[in-house]
Amino acid sequence: MTRANGELGHAVMGTSLPLLDDRRPVASPKPPWLRVRAPGGPNYIRLKGLMRQWNLHSVCEEAHCPNIGECWQDLTATFMILGEICTRNCGYCAVAHGRPTWEDREEPERVGRAVGELGLEYVVITSVNRDDLADGGAGAFAATVRAIRRTAPRCRVELLIPDFQGDPSALAAVIDAAPDVLNHNTETVPRLYKVARHGGRYARTLELFRRARRAAPGLLTKSGLILGLGEERDELVATLRDLREADVNILTLGQYLRPSPRHLPVARYYAPEEFAELAGIGLDLGFAHVESAPLVRSSYHAKRQVQGL
Predict the structure, then answer these.
(1) Residue 215, CB half-sphere, CA atoms under 13 Å: how many?
(2) Which of 22-26, 57-61, 83-87, 224-228 has the lowest mean pLDDT?
(3) Distance, CA of 210 to CA of 88 (rounded, Å)
(4) Domain count for the chain
(5) Quick one: which of 141, 183, 234, 287 has the fewest CB in 10 Å?
(6) Cβ neighbourhood burial of 188 (10 Å; 0-12, 13-18, 19+)
(7) Are residues 88 and 193 in contact, defined by beta-carbon separation less than 8 angstroms?
(8) Under 8 Å between Cβ of 75 and 46
(9) What's the pTM value of the predicted model, to 2 decimals?
(10) How far apart are CA 292 and CA 276, in angstroms?
């Protein structure tokens, strides 16, 4: 992946930052609160082996999630369907970009069997962007939900979906499968979409939530942002307000961590106290639950979030 051109030269909350030669901000060395233990517990090792055995993918691995050890040791995982090659090339994302060839019709049943065998009570299903497919992969999401319902009827299912390029029929197919939570990540503020979210559209993200609410008034909806790409405080709060106006129920906020030197630089690291402050702002805006901390990712504590509601 090549680093995108665009404006990232703004600090947040009044913090000044040194600049790279291309005038982008660069954060100071990684602070101590972002350190995590290397994974290696018995449940982690077992789950990793089962992923290989069943030829399944997890976003925990593909996106280099810092919480993989904690979540897998707790037998909680986010399954990534539709392969591991994404048709988009977002500037912050570690998932490989290219031309996918993966279309495995048996994958939904394998995921369903895996969830049943592991005895999971809550599972998140996500995917790469598959703009090469007519429905963007919506049919595979729906089939996976139904497979899980057959093998693990007591398991709650959260879907973390792409935007399906704004196709309302694709979104309708996913909602008709009756997931417990519908999640779509906003990722960043609208000004930075051209820099960070190649192929994404901010207005399309908001419309996805509005359509979902009209189609299923009682469905829990969820979205998340990664912080530290160069957003300013006022535009971040405005983005949270937009999500509440689209009636999003659950919000996650976490620190952006640069996957490699080829990806967008970290403009700044937010302190834990700043994440706590932003959680308060989110609750004041009306979110039913806000998960906000440096190592929070979209699926982190997903089960607890829903139980709390």
Answers:
(1) 21
(2) 22-26
(3) 24
(4) 1
(5) 234
(6) buried
(7) no
(8) no
(9) 0.82
(10) 6
Determine the Cα–Cα distance for residues 165 and 124; give it in Å rounded to an integer.
21
* Distance from C-alpha of 299 to C-alpha of 305, rounded to nearest angstrom: 10
Question: Is residue 63 a part of any domain in this protein?
Answer: yes
Q: Which two tokens stand for residue 168?
A: 């309302």
Sign of the Cα pseudo-torsion (21, 26, 28, 30, in order): negative
Where are any strands of DSSP class E within 36-192?
A: 57-58, 78-81, 85-86, 96-97, 122-127, 156-160, 181-183
Lowest mean pLDDT among 113-127, 205-219, 251-265: 113-127
Q: What is the DSSP code string of 259-274? A: -STTSPPP--PPPHHH
28 belongs to a structural domain: no
**What residue numbers bound the domain in which 204 lies?**
53-308
CATH number assigned to the domain comprising residue 203? 3.20.20.70
Could you tell me the pLDDT band of residue 12, with boundaries at 50, 70 and 90?
A: very low
289 token code pair = 């639950």
Q: Which residues contact 273 (CB under 8 A, 6 or more apart)?
A: none
Determine the Cα–Cα distance for residues 175 and 171; give it in Å rounded to an integer. 6
Q: How many residues does the chain have?
A: 309
- Going by C-alpha positions, the residue among 182, 180, 108 that lies closest to residue 151 is 108
The answer to whether residue 18 is domain-embedded is no
| pLDDT for residue 196 is more than 80 | yes
Dig out the tokens for 175 from the structure.
């909602």
Structure tokens at 216: 């299923």
C-beta of residue 136 within 8 angstroms of C-beta of residue 164: yes
What confidence tens digit (pLDDT) does each residue in 126-143 have?
999 999 999 999 999 999
